[in-house]
Structures are given as C-alpha cells and as structure tokens.
Design goal:
Aldehyde Dehydrogenase, Chain A, domain 1, alpha/beta, 18 helices, six-stranded mixed β-sheet, Aldehyde Dehydrogenase, Chain A, domain 2, binds glyceraldehyde-3-phosphate
Length: 541
C-alpha cells in the first residue's frame, strides 16, 4: 500500500469517533455579546468545518461542526460605541473600580470558565485539530495564567499602596488603564494566546473589543455569558465578521487606544497606520518568527534531535516559537539527519483524540498547497526531501518533510512556513549562522546546540542582540509564562509575561502633593474615609 493510502486510513467514519470526544451537538451561534447583552443575529453566517475529515461515500470530507455570525461594520461600530461608553473617558464603573473588586470579577469569570472546560477543550480539538492532550494543556495553562496574573496584580498593588516622599513632595504611584483595547488572537493558541492579552488588558480596567481568530472561533461562544454576567455592561464585547471588512473602520475611528494582536506583522503595520493619531495608539504585538536551531560540530546530536523534534514539529510546527530552520555543521550533518529522520519516523500520526498522537490534520484550507509549493521551490533550487514518506499528504493531513540542503535561494530559507516542514541548512563556519540572523527580518528566539562552553559563549554575545531569547541546548518556547516573551525586528512589539502584560496594558499615574500641613490633612482624610479608589492605602491580601 502506498503511503497516501496509509494516511487516508487515519481518518475514520462518523460512527467510529469515540463518543467521549464528540461535541454534544453542532454549535450554530446566532448571537454575540455586545453592550452587556447577547444580541441576536439573523444575518450571514460562516460554517465551521473541522480539519478532521470524515470518511463518507463521497470520500474524505471535513466535518461540519457549527457556524457563527459574519457581522458587518455596523455591528462592529456598535460594539465599539459600547466599549467607548463603558470606558466613559476613564470615568466608567470598570476603569474607576478598585483593584480588589476588579480581581473579584475576574475570579468569578474564571470559575465560570472552568465550568465550560469540557466543551472548550473539545472545541479547540475540533476547530484546529490540536491533540486532545494539548488542547487540555492549553485550557489549563490559560487558567493558570489568569491566576498568576491576579497574583502579580496583587503584588503590584501592594507595592503601590504606600507613598514615596522625595524633596518634600509625596506621591502615590499606581497604574491606570489606557482605554479601549482591540484584541485579536491567533488560531494556533486560540484560547491561550488570546487570553494572555485579553485578561491583563481587562483586569487593568480597560474595556475590550475582542475579535476571535479565524479558526478557533466557536470555542469563545461558551464564555460570552460569563463575560456578560461577571463584568459591567460594555466592558467586554465580542465582534464577528471578516477582519478586513470590520477592523480597518474601527482603527480609522481613532477610538482604539490599544491594539493587541498575535498575528502577522503585515496586518499589524497596516492597522497601526490606519489610526488617525498613531501617538495615541499603543501596540502590544506578537508577530512572525523564523526561529533557528544551530547545531555545531560540538553538539550532543541525540539531545539536539530530541529538542529539535519537539521544537519544530509539536502541533505540526504551527507555533510562533517553532524552530523553522535548522543550521547543522557540515561535519555532523549526516549523523544529525540520520537520527532526526528516524525520530520523525517514530512520531505518532492520526486523529487528535488518539493517545500519544503528535501529528494531526491542519486547519488552514490552502495550507497543503503552500507547503507543496515550498517543497517544489526547494527541489528546483537543489534540495530534496530526505526522510521516508516526507511531504506525503492526504486530505487535511501533511506528513512532515525534512528538506536538505536548504540555501538562500529557497522560500524555506526566508518564509515562516508555519507547518510540518523542517528545512536543514549545512554550514562550515559559525559566522554564517550569525549573518543569517542579522539579515533575517525576524528576531524572536534561537536555539544553540553545543557542549563546548567557549563556543556557546562566543554565540551568546552576538545573538542576544539579534533575538530576544537564546536557548542553550533547549528548544525555543514561550514558557514558563513568567519569563519575558518578546522579539526584535518584525517579531514583536512590547513584552508579554505575567508581570509585563499588566504593565503593557496600563500606564503609571500618580497623585503628588507638597508636604505641608493642609495637604497632609486633606490626603489623610481621603485615605481615612476611603473616598478614592486610586488614592488609597488599602492592602490586598
Ligand atoms: O505560537 C506561539 C506560542 O506563544 C508558543 O507558545 O512556545 O509555549 O508553544 P509555546
């Protein structure tokens, strides 16, 4: 049997899907949260087809799992008006609420979110094809992130609950919200990466316009009533519609104060430019990346292989932090490829609910065409697929291709393939790898593999000034979430981490006064009567 037929067999008939992984029913969303209400929708809808195909009489077909509204600019503008009204120039209930009360609302929301875990995890799996185990991890990691954010804000608030006195002037310095935040997340971590911006933005007192990603949309539906019930009206609004139809108008309005987007630098740049007053717009962005692994002649090959396999192929390479190009010293290239190809051959492929599965179907409909294009282009420029069955596809599934030797004429050298292709470039001199990183338009992370301390040191110093994280004998990754996650060049703007994110979505404001008797008395009275939420010495335990 040829390998395409083998791959076709990973897809099953409807009746063979294990019952515990099925959605309770198709989800046809006909409402959305705006201005504190679930607004009914009778207009156009987008049908959601899972990357998981089903064996039918007509062959393999993507399974229909539901549909959601395609609203227009008019509805998006109404939601924008709701967010602007809820912010009310910083005088709304939410932006003026005390930190402890805001934390309480987020805790309540998290409780309701946990009640929806089963459905949300299944929706992550069905909408983007992520393995059930990883979908569960994504949910749990998000809940942990919310709790860590709450703790971090409590610490920040405790540190700000006193006064600083310098040169006869006393001040209380706290962080205030920025306004209306337009938040857009990516399809590969549709819950986690969206919430790593949405939750910090929200908890700092901003009001939110949230546009769910193109894939991984329905999973946000079960959370909308929780948002409605836990926050004042208009604080969280979920907008639907084609991004290019509804988002530019929102930016043109000049009423968006923060753009937070995990996606492409091209889209981010265009959106930023459409804001009439760029100086009033803060951007917190996680963008494209082409993280490199550098395997030197002194590397422990089996450890490098282990790390690079996970780094390049977990969730089929669809991570912004994935290793998307592997530089290997020519003297160890054959051995590296031998071990790497064998390790690829060990990865389990199949349906996302299967235990231990690593490789699963891809959500983007035109992805396989693009991956094939990259491979043809590499072959035309002198490379080949060097692993068994590499690049074979069936319906929405693409078996990983290890492509070697890759050079600068190829798409795979420059483009972020965001999928299961591992381009391998041989090198003779480490300087070539440094030059690649200097010339790259990306600057997120790099992984260096070597057991030689001097060699590692000689790479660390130039590379920390090219990227934002140098991983030593370790794959690239975002976590742990308390570490700063950012990038240089076209890879990011601003820094995310539990502690950085709450700073990114707020600005320091202070109340200052000359230390004279009248002022001391007035300030003491405010604090004593607890008459200001901002100027307060209350301590959150
Ligand atoms: O897609 C980018 C994610 O932030 C990657 O997170 O490195 O923990 O998988 P991760």
């Amino acid at each position: 049997m040829d390998f395409t037929s083998t791959l076709q067999k990973i897809f099953v008939e409807e009746k063979d899907i294990p019952a515990e992984f099925l959605l309770p029913s198709q989800i046809h969303q006909r409402e959305y949260l705006s201005n504190g209400e679930m607004v009914p929708w009778n207009g156009q809808v987008h049908e959601v087809f899972s990357p998981i195909c089903i064996k039918t009489e007509n062959g393999l077909e993507r399974k229909l799992i539901g549909s959601y509204p395609i609203c227009t600019e008019a509805e998006a503008q109404q939601s924008l008006d709701a967010a602007v009204a809820a912010y009310n120039n910083g005088r709304g209930e939410w932006p003026t609420m005390g930190v402890a009360e805001r934390i309480h609302c987020v805790e309540q929301f998290t409780g309701k979110m946990i009640e929806q875990k089963d459905l949300i995890v299944k929706l992550i799996m069905w909408e983007i094809g992520k393995s059930f185990a990883d979908s569960t991890k994504e949910f749990d990691r998000t809940v942990e992130y919310i709790y860590a954010t709450i703790d971090s804000l409590k610490n920040l608030d405790r540190d700000s609950s006193g006064f600083d006195i310098v040169d006869g002037i006393a001040a209380q310095v706290r962080r205030s919200p920025l306004g209306v935040v337009l938040c857009m997340g990516p399809f590969n971590y549709p819950l986690n990466e969206t919430f790593t911006t949405l939750i910090p933005a929200l908890i700092m007192g901003n009001t939110i316009l949230f546009k769910p990603p193109k894939f991984g949309t329905l999973l946000h539906y079960p959370l909308q009533e929780a948002f409605r019930d836990c926050f004042p009206k208009g604080v969280v609004n979920v907008i639907y519609g084609r991004g290019n139809a509804i988002v530019p108008g929102l930016m043109h309005s000049g009423k968006i104060n923060v753009l937070t987007l995990i996606g492409s630098s091209k889209v981010a740049n265009e959106l930023k430019k459409s804001h009439p007053k760029v100086n009033r717009l803060r951007a917190v962005l996680g963008l494209d990346a082409k993280n490199a692994a550098i395997v030197t002649s002194h590397a422990d090959i089996s450890l490098s292989v282990k790390e690079i396999i996970t780094g390049s192929l977990s969730f089929n390479g669809q991570r912004c932090t994935a290793l998307k190009i592997v530089w290997v010293h020519r003297s160890v290239a054959d051995e590296f490829l031998r071990q790497f190809n064998a390790a690829v051959g060990q990865l389990k492929y199949g349906m996302p609910w299967e235990k231990g599965v690593s490789l699963t179907p891809l959500p983007e409909t035109n992805k396989i065409e693009y991956l094939n294009e990259c491979i043809s282009d590499a072959i035309a420029n002198g490379a080949e697929i060097v692993n068994e069955n590499g690049g074979t596809s069936a319906a929405s599934f693409f078996y990983p291709a290890v492509v070697y030797p890759v050079n600068s004429k190829m798409k795979l050298y420059h483009e972020e393939q965001f999928g299961p292709i591992v381009p391998v470039v041989p090198f003779d001199d480490l300087e070539e790898t440094i030059e690649f990183l200097i010339e790259s338009t990306h600057g997120q992370q790099v992984s260096i593999f070597s057991d030689n301390a001097d060699e590692i040191a000689s790479l660390i110093d130039p590379l920390v000034n090219q990227v934002s994280r140098v991983n030593v004998n370790t794959q690239c990754q975002r976590g742990p979430d308390v570490f700063p996650f950012t990038g240089r060049k076209d890879s990011a703007e601003g820094t995310l981490s539990v502690a950085d994110a709450i700073r990114a979505f707020s600005i320091r404001s202070l109340v200052a006064f000359k230390m004279n008797e009248t002022n001391k008395q007035v300030i003491n009275e405010i604090v004593h009567k607890d008459s200001s939420n901002f100027l307060s010495t209350k301590f959150i335990f």
